[in-house]
Amino acid sequence: MRSAPAAGLLPLLLGLRLLLGGGAEAQYSSDLCNWKGSGLTHESHKKDVEQVYLRCSEGSIEWMYPTGALIVNLRPNTSPASYKHLTVCIKPFKDSAGANIYLEKTGELKLLVRDGERSPSKVYCFGYDQGGLFVEATPQQDISRKITGFQYELMSRGIASDLHTVSAPCRPCSDTEVLLAVCTSDFVIRGSIQDVTNEAEEQESVIHVGVNKLYRQKSKVFQLTGESGNWRGQIKTLLECGVRPGDGDFLFTGRMHFGEARLGCAPRFKDFQRMYKEAKDKGLNPCEIGPD
Predict the structure, then answer these.
(1) Is beta strand 34-38 parallel, antiparallel or unpaired with respect to 58-64?
(2) Signal peptide span per the entry (predicted)?
(3) Which of 44, 67, 128, 176 has the most CB atoms around its CB within 10 Å?
(4) What share of the chain is helix, strand, coil (3-state, %, to 5)?
(5) Average model confidence (pLDDT) for the chain?
(6) Which of the listed ranges 37-41, 79-83, 102-106, 156-160 does the model predict with the highest average pLDDT?
(7) Quick one: which of 38, 80, 37 has its CA closest to 55?
């Protein structure tokens, strides 16, 4: 459903081409992945629109004292032909405030995140071809304490659907899904559940894992701790899945999402050994995981 644009929003879009050629110079810091800027460089009576160009698959936007608007152009270093297969996800900072975030395509606007909306850990995803991000400051009596910010990620649509499955997100994986997860996940470990911390506000559970064998990890989520030399780490999942501490080893797989390990398939290790051996005997295992 399309939301009605805020007052002054359409003139901002219609005047964009003119603004690109002039206007106040913005003071900001930027690299290929992240942008940080301030609305204090704008003259108060102007509705400036700033263009932001980022070329990474993940990063962040931090807009202090927001005034006017930003157009965020995500241009990953991939072939334009692959753009239609990409999903964009954004995760607002916990205290983000001072602006509405829209999807914009050929002048049409769809409200994505309303200013003041408080949904801890909520992630908003859309197809890359659905439009770009248009961030417009909302009228404020005092902007001195307002910072609008969010993280972003670009990923293939297959990975995004794995992370945001609407139907049966807590169901056990089939044998085929487990074997494929071993080959494609960002982390694969054999370990046990040491403890589970439930975060009711964020509707998530944090699984504290003791690692017995590390097969693969994309980033250093699982690390050696203390003098004992044990590997430990944390994996997040939905609170509704009802994860509890228990005995025995599991094969934990999953993906990194906004710097956090998110749980994918996690069969008991003895069940994984069975399905892996059966597939290997038939020559059907999609990849080798190595010795136990």
Answers:
(1) parallel
(2) 1-26
(3) 67
(4) 20, 40, 40
(5) 81
(6) 102-106
(7) 80
Specify the pLDDT at position 213.
93
Residue 121 has pLDDT above 80, yes or no: no
What burial class does residue 184 get, using C-beta atoms within 10 Å of its C-beta: 0-12 exposed, 13-18 middle, 19+ buried?
middle
- The residue among 59, 63, 55, 51 whose CA lies nearest residue 32 is 55
Give the span between the Cα atoms of 175 and 192, in whole angstroms. Answer: 20
Listed by start position, the domains of the chain span 9-159, 165-281
Question: Quick one: what percent of the chain has pLDDT higher than 70?
Answer: 81
In sequence order, the 6+-apart residues with CB closer than 8 A to the CB of 116 are 97
pLDDT confidence band for 261 (50 / 70 / 90): very high
Q: Find the helix or strand (DSSP H, E) in which 85 lies.
A: none
Q: Buried b / exposed e across 232-258, counting CB within 10 Å, b at 16+? A: bbebbbebeeebeeeeebbbbbbbbbb
Looking at domain 165-281, its CATH class is mainly beta
Regarding the domain delimited by 9-159, which CATH topology (the fold level of the hierarchy) does it fall under? Jelly Rolls (2.60.120)
For residue 14, the SS3 value is helix
What does the pLDDT read at residue 22?
35
Per-residue pLDDT at 292: 64
Residue at token pair 């008991």? 268
Residue 87 belongs to what H/E stretch? strand 86-92
Structure tokens at 109: 């606007």
**Residue carrying the six token digits 């801890």:** 120
Sheet arrangement for strand 132-137: 49-54, 69-74, 132-137, 99-105, 108-113
- Predicted pLDDT of residue 152: 94
Please give the structure tokens belonging to residue 73: 């152009």
As a whole number of Å, the end-to-end CA separation of the chain is: 51
